[in-house]
Amino acid sequence: MAHRMGAEQARQHFAEIIANAERGRVTIIERHGEPRAMVVPLTRSPASPASVTFTALAGTGAGLWGSDPTRTIEALREEWE
User: Fold this and answer.
1) CATH level 3 topology of 1-47
2) Which of the four pLDDT bands, split at 50, 70 and 90, describes residue 67?
3) Which residues contact 41 (CB under 8 A, 6 or more apart)?
4) Pairwise CA distance, residues 70 & 81, whole Å
5) Domain chopping of the chain, boundaries
6) Please, what is the average pLDDT of the chain?
């Protein structure tokens, strides 16, 4: 079963989350009670590092920041104030 924690708690305990992943534990990170990200052991990921090159990942973030990346980044910064 996956461990769940809020985004702020995850930020404060990032090293622990990575250590847990090394031990095989999955951590789901939530924001406002909704799952937003998951840290999984690399052995459970759909692609191992040996099979994925950085060039294969090129362009995979297209549209990630929306139509106005500046506005999106400003909104994200405001969240932490």
Assistant:
1) YefM-like fold (3.40.1620)
2) confident
3) 21, 22, 23, 24, 25, 26
4) 17
5) 1-47
6) 80
Alpha-carbon distance of 44 to 14, in angstroms, equals 19
Is-contact 27 21, C-beta < 8 A?
yes
Higher pLDDT, 81 or 38: 38
Of 60 and 8, more confident? 8
More confident position, 22 or 61: 22
C-beta of residue 40 within 8 angstroms of C-beta of residue 26: yes
Name the one residue in this structure whose structure tokens are 């052991």: 41
